[in-house]
Structure formats: structure tokens, C-alpha cells
Amino acid sequence: MAEEIVVVGKITSAFGVKGGVKVFSYTKPRLNIVNYDPWFLKVEGDWREFKGVKGRQQGKSIAVELHGVEDRNAAEKLSGTLIGITSEQLPELNDDEFYWRDLEGMSVINLQDVPFGKVSHLIETGSNDVLVVHETAAEREEGKKRKERMIPFTKQAVIDIDKESRIITVDWDADF
Q1: What pLDDT, in 10s, does the model give residues 130-141?
Q2: For a Cys staple, 160 with which of 137, 169, 173, 175, CB 3.0–4.6 Å?
Q3: Three-state SS for 104?
Q4: Cα–Cα distance between 131 and 148 in angstroms, integer?
Q5: SS3 of 132, please?
Q6: Which CATH code for domain 5-89?
């Protein structure tokens, strides 16, 4: 497959007797996941296309019907399967907006040009997102015990994001 696949959720279990599945969505709001068509499911190591997705909110998960999944046994086999879409299906963002996947791997420095490492991933805390930054090679060689830093993704802490050079500048103390 030539397009990049972006994971947007996961099938958690079968739902009902007619082949429905329950989905945990990574999209905001959660029900937005059913607006993407087609879906790509990672089945036995390969991405398979599924068109005509229909779904509705069911508590914290989404109840979904997939074209071609006709009974509970077929739905149960999909439990734990990742749901993806192509990167071309994602909406365009404004210049000051970012997808988490775009921030992952960026280098992080503070206002004093102290390198902190690279963004490993982000986590959602409810009040704000958090950059998880893994240590630099220099810190590792110096035997520092810090394996990672957690920096709030707020306007106060994140000063600049340079997409071209892939550097995030933060207002954060190197010893914290």
C-alpha cells in the first residue's frame, strides 16, 4: 500500500449476533471515526480495506457494522484489530495545529539550547496533553538517571515548533 496508514482506533470485541463490533476510537470526538470511509483493518499483518462503515455511540465505545462481517464468529476474530485510515483522509490543519504523529520524533531543546532528546509520544491528561521526551545520547553517556521528561503541551511551556527543522523549543528547566 503506497499511502501511509494512520491508526485511529481499535476493535475491542464483537457486538450482537449479526457481525457488529465495538470500537475504541482515538478520534475527537470519538464518533468521528465512523466519518472515515474506507477503513483499513490490520488483519494477519496486512491492511485490508473495508467500505461502508456504519456506527453509533455506545457508551465510551462505538458500535459498528462492517460490510462483509456477517456473523458474531467473524466479528470475534477481529477483536484487538487496529483500525487505520490513509493520511490523505485526515483533515488539513491550520499552521498552529498539529497531529500528534507530526510531533513524534521531533528534537526538544529549552530556551538555553540544552537538548532534551526526542518526543517519544504524547499522552492526554484531561487538562492538557503532555510531551514525553526520551533522553539524549549525551545524557545517557553521562550516566544521568533521567530516561524521559514529561513536558506539558501548553502555550506557557511550548514556545516554538519549527516544522522545517523538526525542533520544539520549550521553557523548561534542564534539571526538572
Answers
A1: 999 998 666 666
A2: 169
A3: coil
A4: 10
A5: strand
A6: 2.40.30.60
